[in-house]
Design a protein that fits this description.
Blueprint (H helix, E strand, L loop, with lengths): L3 E7 L4 H7 L1 H8 L3 E7 L6 H10 L3 H4 L15 H7 L4 E6 H7 L6 H4 L1 E3 L7 E5 L14 H15 L3 E6 L1 H9 L4 H23 L2 E6 L15 H4 E7 L5 E8 L3 H8 L15
Parallel strand pairs: 1-6, 1-7, 2-9, 3-5, 3-6
Antiparallel strand pairs: 2-8, 4-5, 7-8
């Protein structure tokens, strides 16, 4: 039995939009190939705090990354560091903030955009940043390009834990709002990209998990307590007991779930039980 896991984080994809516009992911549920939970994001429902909650199993009040402006190296046990310490291999195709959190701060594109370093928690990283940013307009790689980079890292390195993080929904949501047709289309585009690649990842022995860090308001923001920014979907493609779980679960459950799937011990600080 394989213990390899891919976590896909679709930044800013709210729960209802996933259910209404991600036909591939919902089709996996309908076909009996996946299990879905409604997951509650940590507070504040902002990107950097939620990235850290996903990887440490802690709330921002405990892991200390309480705002995007407070981004810095993780000081808590996290999936990348724990996997690396156990002799597992790791990789990520993700926004540069993940490099800051788990590898090197500050992020310097010329040095860190392509990382292959056996001593780093993220041993094989392909990071993009927002150096061409003008108020929520990002020069982003396409979702298909990001998935293709995952394919290349899998073919070259066969990582035990692989992170894929896409900012396309988040970028569009900030400009057009969480109920716009542009935001809905962005969700469909990333869903279609995943539909082209997940079967291949599964064939290589990976359990594929898909979720979001937070949702969106209609006016293009997140960070507060509304259901629309806190509720996200969590899909486990390849779960032995497919279907839909109606009771909400905490984002803090993701890290212990992944560690358990990888056959690694769960630190005592991670209080949430792994999802079953």
């Amino acid at each position: 039995m394989s213990n390899k896991v891919i976590l896909v984080v679709v930044d800013g994809l709210k729960y209802k939009t996933a259910l209404d516009h991600c036909g591939y992911l919902e089709g996996q549920i309908e076909a009996g190939h996946a299990r879905r939970w409604r997951m509650r994001a940590s507070l504040p429902s902002m990107s950097a705090p939620c990235y850290e909650s996903l990887h440490t199993g802690l709330d921002p009040a405990h892991h200390g990354i309480t705002a995007n402006s407070l981004l810095g190296p993780s000081t808590s046990d996290n999936i990348f560091a724990l996997a690396h310490a156990a002799g597992k291999s790791t990789a990520a195709v993700a926004y540069s903030w993940f490099s800051v959190l788990y590898n090197t701060a500050p992020y310097v594109a010329a040095l860190h955009q392509e990382t292959d370093d056996a001593d780093m928690p993220i041993q094989h990283g392909r990071f993009y940043n927002d150096s061409d940013r003008t108020e929520y307009h990002l020069a982003l790689p396409s979702d298909n390009d990001l998935c293709a980079q995952v394919d290349r890292l899998i073919n070259r390195h066969e990582p035990d834990y692989m992170l894929l993080h896409t900012l396309s929904c988040d970028s569009v949501g900030h400009v057009h709002g969480g109920s716009s047709w542009q935001y809905q289309r962005a969700a469909n585009v990333v869903d279609s990209a995943l539909g082209h690649h997940i079967d291949g990842w599964r064939a290589k022995g990976y359990r594929v998990l898909v979720t979001a860090d937070h949702g969106f308001t209609d006016c293009g923001y997140h960070g507060g307590t509304e259901d629309t920014v806190r509720d996200v979907a969590f899909y486990d493609i390849g779960h032995p007991n497919p279907g839909i779980v109606t009771e909400p679960v905490s984002q803090r459950a993701v890290a212990p779930t992944i560690l358990t799937m990888m056959g690694l011990p769960v630190p005592a600080a991670m209080k949430e039980a792994p999802l079953e």
